[in-house]
Each structure stands twice: as structure tokens, then as C-alpha cells.
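ARCHIVE CARD
Drawer: 12
Card no.: 0347
Subject: one protein chain, sequence and derived structure
Cross-reference: see card 0346
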Amino acid sequence: MNRLRVGFSIADQSLRRSKSIGILNVSLGLLGELVKQPEIGEVVVFGNSSLAPIPNATLQTHDSVATRRWARLWWDQFGVYRAAKSSGCDWLFLPKGFASFVGKPPVKMAAYVHDAMHDFYRSHYGGGFSPFENFYFPRAFEAVLRHATVIFTNSEFTAQEARRMANKLGTEPPRIVVAGIGFDPVKLREPKQDLITMLVSKWPHKMTGRAVEWLARWQSKTQYGGQVQLVGDLPPGVALPPLSNWRLISRLGGEDFETILQRSRAVVYFSEYEGFGMPPIEAALRQAAPVYSRIPAMMETAGGLGFPFDNDSSESFDAALNGALACQAARIKQWAEILSKRHAWPAVARRVAVALAQPPR
């Protein structure tokens, strides 16, 4: 068997500057298991010095890509292709799912597509991103659909989105493989408290205004006396209600966030659109009851476990949260076991390695 030489580009991702820590964690989680696959001879990581060393991988450091915007743009459009070619790679793997739109890849290219968020915002919010981002991201996404040898996705929903976008472009999509997302094993170390945690965001699709309103209304109805912690940032025009048991935490380190999740009885997550939707899984693995929007991606990835609710029904939300707080610990533990087996990094990396080893169609 000819073992593959794979270039894996994370030069533009860093703990200090990445807009999405979730995407960075997915990139690193996949990379950590991909290097162990028998089909892979060597992984050349195009990285930066802010990231921890990757065992069993060859690191090329490109620090300016992570710190300077124009260096990152040059890297996206020209640099990463040159690095893959000069390194003698069989494959270039782009874990953020965007590619150069000014040239074609010099080697076989694989991209991990997380969602079609830019298209959702364009159709629902008139863009939602900056003018530059509205120009840049659609073209970089289209380049993946046109030039990738294989696309990996986090869910079947995202695979359908990629096919839909290819059809919209009038092009035949490349081979699409649902690889999934894995989660590291969780070591429980915090006792449960009478605590509800709700994740909030300035992004409109996270529906934070409605989330705050509905949760405050629910508390008024039930006279809930525990603690409510909101983690994230409130959008303009949304204020914390004058309730003594509510607290907003804008920024949390990884360990602090882990502690909050483990202490929570329920984790609430509103969203209009996700490619995967990690918070319900993260909550269940920490044996907190997940309360989440009933949208296609999260219903798929959570398998309907937990307490989904309808985004247009406060009564549905009330019922979901009441169910979560009444849920027995043994039931949530069972969900955690099911989801940890369903979403495991070794299985994700195995799907990726097998697909990379297959001849192009």
C-alpha cells in the first residue's frame, strides 16, 4: 500500500485570533487521529507557533499567516498551494472548507465543509457579514465545490447543503463523505448545582433576544429559584433582565467553561441554522440535559436525544426546559454513552483516511 503524504493547513488558525474556536478544535481533533491512520505516511502541518506540537507530524511554521490579515489572504489564495506543491504532498487538506478562487490546486484537494452559513445569511439577513466577507467567502466556498477532489462534512445536513450549493452554481459536486465530528472523553469532576446555562451570541441566527425573553418568562411562570448563567455576548438592544439570579459571563477560558458545563443541570442553546451544532452534544457528555432548537442539523447529530423545542413556540420551549430539569441523571448518563460512541475521533479519522486512499472518481 502506498502511504499518503498529506498537507494539512491550520496556519491561519490560532487560539488568540480564531473567530471560531469550535472549528479550531475540530481541526486539531481530526489531525490528532489522522496521523495514526495506516493509509497516511506523513502529515505535513502548515501551522504556526501558537499551536501545541502535533505528535507524529512534520510542522512547517507560517506565523505571519495567523497574525496579519494580508498575509492570511495571500496564503489562502497562493501560499497554501505553493506549500503543498513544494512539500511533495499527494493531498492538500483544508479543514476550514474554503479554497483559493484565483487558481486551481496543484495536488488533490480535500476540504472539510462545516456549513453554508454565508448563504443562509445572504438569504435571511441580507448578508450579515462585512462587505469584504460577503465578497470573499461565497467565492472561496464555490472554489471548493469546483476544485476539490473530495469534500468531507460534519453531518448529512451539511452534505445536502453542499449539493444544494453546487446545483445552484450549475456544477457537479465532487465526492462528498460525511465524516462527522468527534469529541474527546470527558472526565467528570464537578458536582451538579441548581444551575441553568444558556449560550448567547451577537450573531442574529443565535436568536439571543428571543432566548432571553423566553427564559425570563419561563422563570416568571415557574418561580425557578436556582442560578441562570448566560455565556457569551448580548447583541445590541438586548439587556439582562433585572433578576437577581441571572449572571452574564462574556469571556471564559476552556477550563472555566468546562466547569460551568459540568455543574449545570441544563444547557440551553437557541439557533436558526447549524451545520452540526456542538453544544447539545457537549452538554450531554457532561451529563447536563441539553435543551436546543429543533432544526435539522441538531436533530440529526443529537439523534433526537435531549429536549428539542420549536423556535416559534414558547410553549414548546417551556415544556423542553421543564422536562430537562425533571430528567433523571441515569437517563442523561445513558444519552452521554450513546453520543460518545456515535461521535468519536478515531471513527471520524478512519472515514477520512479511507476516502483519501480511494482512487479519484
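Annotation on reverse: The first strand starts at residue 4 and ends at 9. The chain has a mean pLDDT of 94.
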